[in-house]
Amino acid sequence: MSKKHNSPNSQKASSKKSGKKIAQLRKEISDLEKSLTPEMIEKVSAQVIASQSNALYGGIANTAENYLSKTVMVNPNAPEDTLQANVSVPTAAAIGPVALVEKPYVYGYTSDFSGSAQFRMIFPFNAINAHFGHTGKLQCMVQNQIVTQEDILPFVRAFWFKNPFESNRSYEIYVYKKYQERYQYKLIAELDDYVFEYPEWHPLHGKFTIDDARNLLDNLRKVDEVVVSSENLKRLLVELGVNTPITLMPNLLPKAYYGTDISKRYRLKDIAKPTILYNGTNYHYGNSNGDFDGPIKEFILKNLDNYNFIFMGVGRRLDGSLTLPDYLQVPAKEGRIKIMPHYAPTEYPYALRQLRPDFVIAPLAECAFNEAKSDLRYLESASTGAIFIGQSFANGNSPYKYCRNVFEKASDIEEIVNRLLNKDTFNEALKLQYEELNTRWLDDVNNLLNIVKIFGEGLNGVQLTPEHEQYNQFKNRLDEDGFFR
Predict the structure, then answer these.
(1) CA nearest 179: which of 204, 206, 150?
(2) Which residues pair with 226 in a beta bridge?
(3) Angle of helix 445-456 relative to helix 123-132, nearest 10 degrees?
(4) What is residue 167's predicted lDDT score, i.e. its pLDDT?
(5) Cα(400)–Cα(458) distance, rounded to whole angstroms?
């Protein structure tokens, strides 16, 4: 029995018919692509995001299986023009097995945008974004509202809370702690003041209540790590009974504001009448003379006409008096000392340089609150080309105990100033300060990496295997051990 063969004509007809079908399909695809306008795509995105952005209390417990297949309406207001699209959206359960593979987000919470917030959160976050943002692996954001969307939480590496004793911080830490095991992020608290013992002259004395203290201690217990600005503050917290791991993150200067590479102020001649600047907050003498009692008072009153004194951050109290120690009210009105207003943190470094001080002085009364202070004033002094003079404590715990020029009594200050009036001696002391400043720039990648390490240290990496759906997607990003942290 002979085999039946298709004739050449039938093959040509079949090929022609197939070609028409392909052409028709191409036309339909082309028409479909033309119909997908940017507006439609935006609406699809909005629909998908809305469907997956449930608040924790509303929908976090109802997460679906591995992937949700969503049918979304592009144009629900005009059904005849509606295009339906099936979109696969990864849910928390799908992301869970490899939650640490992509955890770029760090959220920082602060109640204000003061100089403290700038140095301890905003400046570092901006620098980290500038250096690592292009990699897509790290993005730091400053918040003042709680973020609880289930399409965001799996990708969060850390939540960072500055001075977390307010009630809203307590609520945020409670919520994030509740869901931490599921989403595997890190909770970090940051302190740069020993708020448990405000001195009596401080405007916040008596305003930090027992409830505030209880909230703060409870929050420090809940977080994974506490970050502080000085070794003394770490010691005081340990003595208080805080047993959460405490890490020192010293203050760092952003070069964009404080850079000295082309503006180093070596003196070309001896100093005839030195300019002495106080650039700290007026909280140091808020309700009384405070830190400006004792040897600093004796030194200033003795030398009002011998030196040029400048005070920054001066305003007025409700009674009309200047925010200065009482013994400087009259000299300020007579013009015997120069007073400068408060400056925004981003304007302050420029104003500081414009004043061109020879010395920056930092008096501190001996107390636990002042022991916990950082050496930020020393760094600012070095960056502006002025010799720093700090006060020492009898117990040896002054924040300036490692500085070269410190005083216990008024005569110590005079001795330091007189010794450094010679330009060569002054320049040698200034050079040492500049050299020490080299390790304290925020822009130093090593310093930034130390902060980045805090964000993720302690989080366990998740090893990928071919059984994980995302293995092929992420395998090229793993380290030699098969981990991405």
Answers:
(1) 150
(2) 189, 246
(3) 100
(4) 75
(5) 32
State if pTM tops 0.85: no
The two tokens of residue 374 are: 């950082």
Angle at 196 between CA 190 and CA 202, to 5 degrees: 100
Q: How far is CA 428 from CA 85, 234, 382, 434, in A?
A: 72, 33, 13, 10
The percentage of the chain sitting over the pLDDT mark of 70, rounded to a whole number, equals 72
Contact predicate 60/28, CB 8 Å: no
Which domains can be identified in the chain, with CATH numbers? 29-94 (no CATH), 105-252+445-461 (3.40.50.2000), 265-437 (3.40.50.2000)
For 187, the token pair is 């909770």
Q: Could you give the 3-state DSSP secondary structure of residue 406?
A: strand
Looking at residue 11, what is its pLDDT? 53
Q: What is the crossing angle of helices 423-437 and 376-383, to 10°?
A: 120
> What is the rounded distance in angstroms from the CA atom of residue 137 to the CA atom of residue 312?
41
Strand ranges across the sheet with 308-311: 338-339, 308-311, 275-278, 359-362, 387-391, 406-407
**Which H/E stretch holds residue 226?**
strand 225-228
End-to-end CA distance of the chain: 71
- Residue 62: is its pLDDT beyond 60? no
| Residue in the structure block whose two tokens are 């020492």 | 392
